[in-house]
Each structure stands twice: as structure tokens, then as C-alpha cells.
Design a protein that fits this description.
With about 300 residues, the protein is an alpha+beta fold. It has ten helices and ten strands.
């Protein structure tokens, strides 16, 4: 067998018709071309994602989370365009392809509606950038920090060092508190009650000094000291300081409470606790005295 015969046999192999889509024949050569285009699309998408990541991280003020989300969105756009161009380039009409698969798409649409919803929600999150890797969120009452954003779900880490997989549709359709959406400033509050006999002017001075000496508080805002309530057993004060990292709120709240405790103790100011005064009517008092005398 010479090379011409081998060439003819190879051509005949690539010309074998596998099936048709709306009168468009699909051959072995067609499938091979589609595979090559798809592989090239993945390669180009990967290169563009890396290039976008480098370009965005070099810009002043661009954080890594925003750059990663934008670069990933670029990758998805390139993949979609590449697939469409690949199918069109081999002579397959996309309109005909969609028409042929319409019935099948409707059939599986109901079974995969949650996946489709998460997919669309992922595109929305990546486009809007309302939630980015590194953001600190409150989800279902739990504090989490976003570590990665995929097209279907978002990965976050809890304060207990656990990874949580959050469907993107939940982040789009539910109310989620984002502590780092516009800035990372977080207001940390602590409430303490002192006895009614305390010198309230001194209490204010002591609380202001304790809050002002915290080295981790943000210098952008001064501490705020408020007398909030005349309680049953105490006069309640609220101490507020601002911090730059909401992810550390639990440990910082502990440090704030300790600073308040030691400052009040050093100043001789009593932290109040619930008290109950019991008063007996005269007949009850007389009965108790008779019982004590009899005993």
C-alpha cells in the first residue's frame, strides 16, 4: 500500500458520516475539528485569565479577590464564545442545533433547574462583584469569610476553621450582610452596667481611657461612649470602637471586655449585677419572729 492509498483511506475514514443535525452531516472530521477548537479555547481562556489576573493586580487599589473574580468571568466569556465559534466553524448551524435539542433541553430543564439557577447566579455575582473572595459575610447568623467563588457555588470558611459550600442562588436571592463591601471598618460594641451609686462622670472618663488605649482599634474614628439605659439594677453604658478587620471581632470583643473590666476595677467602680430586695408584710414579719423565738 503506497502513500496515496493510505491518504485515500484516511480521508475516507474522516468522511464517515456519524449522524445529522437538521440536514447537516456530522463526520469524524467534524468531531475532530470541534475537539481541536474546544482544546484551543480552553488554552486561550487559561492564558487570558492569567493575563487579566496579572493586569488587574498591578493596578493601584485593585484587591486580589476582585481581580480573581473578574479574571474568572473573562475565562467563562471566552469559553462560551469559543464553543459557539467552534460549532459554527464546522458548518453546524447553532439555530438548527438549538431547535433539535429544544425538546431535550425542556426535558432536563426541570431536573436541573437548581443547577441552572446557581449557574446564572454565579455569573451575576462575578459581574456585579458585590461579593468577592476575602469578603467577610454573615450567612444564616454565622460569620464566614469567602475563600473561593466558582460558577455554581461559593466556598467560605467559618470561625471554627470549617469550609462551607454556599449555593450562589442563595447569595443572590437572600439578604446577606457583607461587612467588607465598601470598606472593612466594623463597629465593635460592649455593654456594661455600673451601680447607681457610682460617679457617672468618672465612669465616662474611665471607659473613654480604656477604649482609647486599645492599640488595634482604627484611628479613623474615635471611641463612642453612651449611657444607654437606667436598668433595674444598674446604669448601663455602651462602649463602641471601630476595627479594620471584622473577621477578628470575637477575639477583639474579648479584649475590649477585659480592658473595661480591669479599668473599672482599678478605679474602684463596681460592675452591677441583678439584685432583688424582698419586703415582708407586718403579719409575716411577726410570724417569722415568733418562729425564731420558739426555736
Amino acid at each position: 500500500m503506497n502513500w496515496k492509498e493510505s491518504l485515500r483511506e484516511g480521508k475516507a475514514l474522516f468522511d464517515i458520516r456519524l449522524f445529522e443535525i437538521s440536514n447537516t452531516p456530522v463526520t469524524v472530521a467534524t468531531l475532530a475539528s470541534i475537539v481541536l477548537v474546544i482544546l484551543a479555547t480552553f488554552w486561550i481562556a487559561h492564558l487570558l485569565q492569567r493575563a487579566a489576573m496579572r493586569a488587574l493586580t498591578r493596578r493601584d487599589g485593585a484587591d486580589e479577590g476582585t481581580a480573581a473574580a473578574t479574571a474568572r468571568l473573562v475565562r467563562y466569556v471566552v469559553l462560551v464564545v469559543g464553543f459557539a465559534v467552534g460549532i459554527q466553524s464546522v458548518g453546524i448551524d447553532l439555530t438548527a442545533l438549538f431547535a433539535a435539542g429544544a425538546v431535550f433541553a425542556v426535558a432536563i430543564g426541570f431536573a436541573m433547574q437548581n443547577i441552572a439557577q446557581n449557574f446564572v447566579s454565579g455569573i451575576i455575582l462575578l459581574a456585579e462583584r458585590s461579593i468577592k473572595p476575602g469578603d467577610v459575610l454573615e450567612v444564616d447568623g454565622r460569620l464566614v469569610q469567602v475563600t473561593d467563588m466558582a460558577i455554581r457555588a461559593t466556598i467560605a470558611r467559618t470561625l471554627d476553621e470549617e469550609d462551607v459550600v454556599i449555593p450562589n442562588s442563595y447569595l443572590v436571592t437572600s439578604t446577606v450582610k457583607n461587612y467588607t463591601f465598601r470598606d472593612s471598618l466594623y463597629r465593635l460594641r460592649s455593654v456594661v452596667g455600673v451601680t447607681y451609686s457610682s460617679d457617672m462622670a468618672q465612669v465616662r472618663r474611665v471607659l473613654e481611657k480604656a477604649a482609647g488605649e486599645l492599640d488595634w482599634r482604627s484611628s479613623e474614628r474615635e471611641p463612642r461612649i453612651l449611657m444607654t439605659e437606667f436598668g433595674d439594677s444598674s446604669v448601663n453604658w455602651e462602649v463602641s470602637v471601630w476595627m479594620d478587620n471584622p473577621w477578628q471581632m470575637n477575639s477583639r470583643r474579648s479584649e475590649l471586655n477585659q480592658a473595661i473590666w480591669w479599668a473599672l476595677a482599678e478605679a474602684g467602680i463596681t460592675i452591677a449585677f441583678p439584685q432583688l430586695d424582698v419586703h415582708f408584710d407586718p403579719p409575716v414579719t411577726s410570724s417569722l419572729e415568733r418562729l425564731r423565738a420558739a426555736g
